[in-house]
Amino acid sequence: MRMINRAASFFLLIITCALAVSCATAPRSVPAASPKPSDKAPAVQSPAQTPAPQAKPSETPSAQSPPTKANDQNELVRKGSISVTEAFYKQTLTDIRNLIGTLNTIIANEDFETWLTYLTPQYKQTFSNPDTLSSLSDMPLLQKHDVQLHSLQDYFLYVVVPSRSDARVDDIDFLSRNHVRAIAIISGQRYILYDLQLVNGSWKIGVS
Fold this sequence. Notes:
The protein has 208 residues and is α+β, with helices and mostly antiparallel strands. It has helices spanning 6-24, 69-74, 86-108, 112-116, 121-126, 130-137, 140-144, 152-164; strands spanning 76-79, 82-85, 171-176, 179-186, 189-199, 202-205. Strand 3 (171-176) and strand 4 form a beta hairpin.
């Protein structure tokens, strides 16, 4: 039971999405990513507007100066549970996309040992738990391919590898400044790819 054939990988991708949704539920709020109870964003909140200065008698009214780029970057946007500046949102989104690109390579290479370095202790504990692994093994498509998960490495090979080796991040939701969810948008629906936590300055895969 080392590797699943290509057709099985396709089916496991589907199951992973299904499991991911059950992990975080609420489709409009974002289902969870990977069959991990692994893994949804409000609208933009307008910042307080500063009244435009009145034109002096010698000035022609109208033509208000457009906001500067610096002001745009300081504008607050509502992303997930909190509001952050546009600049902070864009920088964090870039950081997360870079991280996911690195993870895609690690996962595609089936590099389990390196993948472990990107996990929080809580994540390792959750997906090493025999009860969690047994529950995931009961999923119909895993049973169809006679896959039984007995370890975190099994979970990596038979669930993570088929479903996360080519992940794409479309957006992020903030639970806090140090806790975000990487979101994929598929057919207009928001799906959680990863629950990520900032630990000692580095983003790690966590659980909610």
